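Let us walk through a complete example step by step. Step one is to write down the protein sequence. Step two is to encode the small molecule, fe (ii) ion, as a SMILES string so that its atoms and bonds are unambiguous. Step three, shown after the inputs, is the structure prediction itself.
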Amino acid sequence: MHREMAKGVYYIGVDDHHTKLFENLWELPFGVSYNSYLIVDEKIALVETVKGPWSSEWIENIREIVDPSKIDYIILNHMEPDHTSSLPDIARIAKNATMVYTSKASDMQKSFYDVPLKEKIVEDLEEISLGGKTLKFVHAPFLHWPETMFTYIAEDQILMSCDAFGAFGALNGRHFDDEIDLDLVEMESRRYLSAIITSYFKFVQKAIARAKDLGIGLKMIAPSHGPIYREHPMWIVEKYDEWTRPELEKHCTIVYGTMYGYTHRLAMKLKKELVDMGVDVRVHNVSYSEMSKILVDSVRAGVLVVGTPTYDAFPFPKVWAFVNEVKGKRFPANVIGLFGTYGWGGGGVRKLKEMFEEMRCEVLEPVIRVKARPTDDEERQVKLLASDIAKRLK
Ligand SMILES: Cc1cc2nc3c(=O)[nH]c(=O)nc-3n(C[C@H](O)[C@H](O)[C@H](O)COP(=O)(O)O)c2cc1C
Ligand SMILES: [Fe+2]
Ligand SMILES: [Fe+2]
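Step three: the predicted structure of the complex.
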């Protein structure tokens, strides 16, 4: 199946309803799409491939429009295998094609696949003419790997932005923003952004500023996952802009783990105090909430509170995994509250405190450590922590 986006420009991507976890980490309740585009002019250019298991479906999509052996250029904006693992298959058919990518991508291509095609390394803002249409390549490092670029069709003002402005969710024949439920797209794009691109928020901001500087017209944003934005191309850009700003949001997110409910009781007491003080609170139990949803509420939380029981002298494993995400993804959130319970020697909260101090976060006082069930004094501490949090969010 294919869709015409503009004269000679086609969507030829595929839906994945099969993969349970993207990167084997992030849930895909609505599937995901691997978008690929075909530009048919005097020369024929393919933009991106798709994930390997979908290659025959995708090559059929190409065949509906042109003979794939006639492809002149294979443009690879990003080398991650969700966009490139069909490259060896198309390379066996489009034997005369030239791969177009950045020098870093060239290096990666050789280490991933080493296909026997010609290559053309493009510099930032370099152009290729296809006859009537001009392709301009805009280097976009770390969106989402170091080698990434965008491809812009100047005459049609279509920006193929790869992972940037992407969303989870299969398209099911509704390829455009004016055909699809935007509330679902909003949820799935934010979950995608928080799971995949949190470490690179700065680069999203840079890319948006750069696009403004270049003054390029944008009639369509065509990412490599999720819908194509043609009715309101700036909608997704504005969302990404808002979601990646360095300023923190005015809410408190409590992320906690519990085995037998003592840490849960502390979490609920803290939540109640905060709600009574009028604070916007989000709560996630790490054993129930999916990690990408926890990330959505945590990455820019004005105050992030983490609660844990001690488990073999460490934080509860799923809390520890979350805190390692905070570290690896270099969250903007940096004001931290901590609480937890233990049975004898403790260590869970202590390890969390060390970890956050190492990350140069501000850890709010009091840090609440309770031996099993809270006493009156510890309940007072919860109130103190809550009022400090409320003050921070004013
Ligand atoms: C598998 C397991 C390992 C534990 N390891 C420790 C430990 O190393 N040190 C400690 O002080 N308490 C340890 N505890 C006790 C718990 O930290 C304590 O009971 C805590 O209050 C449980 O909180 P929860 O009810 O929220 O699960 C452990 C408990 C369990 C079930
Ligand atoms: Fe990627
Ligand atoms: Fe991707």
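Step four is interpretation. The radius of gyration is 24 Å.
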